[in-house]
Amino acid sequence: MQFLVELRYTEPGPLLSAEQAVGLIRERVVPSLEVLAEWQEKNDTIKAGGVFAGVRAAAFVLESDSGEEIGRTLSSLPFWHDVKWEVTPLQTFRSAAEREAGVAEQVAAASGL
Predict the structure, then answer these.
(1) What are the Cα distances from residue 71, in Å, to 12, 74, 77, 102, 109?
(2) Could you tell me the residue range of the domain that residue 20 belongs to?
(3) CA-CA distance, 21 to 23, in Å (whole number)?
């Protein structure tokens, strides 16, 4: 099953010193992006995706057997707590086309068309 995963960095605001900001980037952001890059390069977990140009956000299509597995996968990333996540299950275009064709048939039959 495929899921659209979107993430946006939470703004730490002026609470972080320059030293803390550098530590956050080096210890959590870069390692997380490296893991995501590996998953994409292997093409086994991430099917497509990337970082939005000029924005501290990203999106990717992740292959997973369940929502629970998605939770385990994403929470393994060092910046798990530093970003806001949105995960949406995806339906294939083929199954959506079949569903809509069935709806059209039901409406046509009910309307005598």
Answers:
(1) 23, 5, 10, 34, 43
(2) 2-111
(3) 5
| pLDDT per position as a tens digit, 10-30 | 887 778 888 998 999 999 999
Q: How many domains, in total, are found in the chain?
A: 1
Farthest CA pair distance, the chain: 72
Whole-model pTM: value is 0.84
CB contact at 8 A, 56 and 5: no
Over the stretch 44-103, which tens digit does the pLDDT of each residue have? 789 999 999 999 999 999 999 999 999 999 999 999 999 999 999 999 999 999 999 999
CATH of the domain at 84: 3.30.70.1060
Beta-strand relationship, 57-63 and 46-51: antiparallel
